Amino acid sequence: KENSATLIKFVGSMLNYCSRPDSEDVIDSTNKGKDFASKYFAHIEVEQFYVFCLTKSNKLKKSVLINTGTSGEVNVQIRNITEVAIENKCDRIIVAHNHPCGKAIMSDQDCKFTYSLICSCILNNIDVLDHIIVGTDRTISLYEQGIIEKLKQRATNTIQISEEKRFFISETSKSYIKSNIDE
After folding, report:
1. Which pLDDT value is given to residue 18?
2. Which candidate, 165, 142, 131, 107, places its Cα nearest to that of 52?
3. I need a labelling partner for 57 at 20 to 30 A (CA). Which of 8, 24, 33, 111 fits?
4. Which of 128, 103, 102, 134 is nearest to 16 (CA)?
5. How many angstroms separate the most distant Cα atoms in the chain?
6. How far apart, in whole angstroms, are the C-alpha atoms of residue 169 and residue 171?
7. If you write DSSP's letter for every residue of 50-80 in order, what string do you get?
8. What pTM, to 2 d.p., does this model score?
9. Mean pLDDT of the chain
């Protein structure tokens, strides 16, 4: 009874661990980003939030689990994500979370959170390439939907930054392309 339940839980965790991507992965399109993130949430029954730290060439440096929540929410502090990005000396990040009991739909809270994260990262010379949401029905990319670029424009207009930094932000996003372009 108890041992069987423990074994079943262990097997699910092992399957999740074994299906995770290799650290040699290059994530340079929304399709790759969505596929990559989806593997992290296989067999997970609670919400989790990850940050994927990337190099300038979009090669994965490190994947970091920021927090685990309940089946309906996960609390995340923007400061924690920014600190992880700075500690790992990454140029770019992709963030992802799952909706284990529902559809992959961006909420107003997801949008506000992503905007605040973009602002924090701009001030630290880190580019947020995407926010991916993995649901039970599908996986969505906020970059693919055009939301990331709109939030970056709003952030650069709100935060008084130099033209050089504005150019940096627009240029780094060009290496991460929408899936309909790269197919």
Report:
1. 47
2. 131
3. 111
4. 134
5. 64
6. 6
7. EEEEE-TT-BEEEEEEEEE--SS-----HHH
8. 0.79
9. 85
pLDDT band, very low/low/confident/very high, at 158 (cuts 50, 70, 90): confident
Dist CA 171 CA 125 (whole Å): 13
User: What integer is the mean pLDDT of 80-99?
Assistant: 96
With a CB cutoff of 8 Å and minimum separation 6, the contacts of 36 are 21, 25, 27, 52, 60, 94
Q: Residue 122 in contact with residue 156, Cβ under 8 Å? A: yes
Q: Which of 7, 70, 17, 10 is nearest to 42 (CA)?
A: 17
Token pair in block for residue 42: 């296989």
Query: Which 8-state DSSP code applies to residue 21?
Result: P
* Contact in structure between 28 and 177 (CB atoms under 8 Å): yes
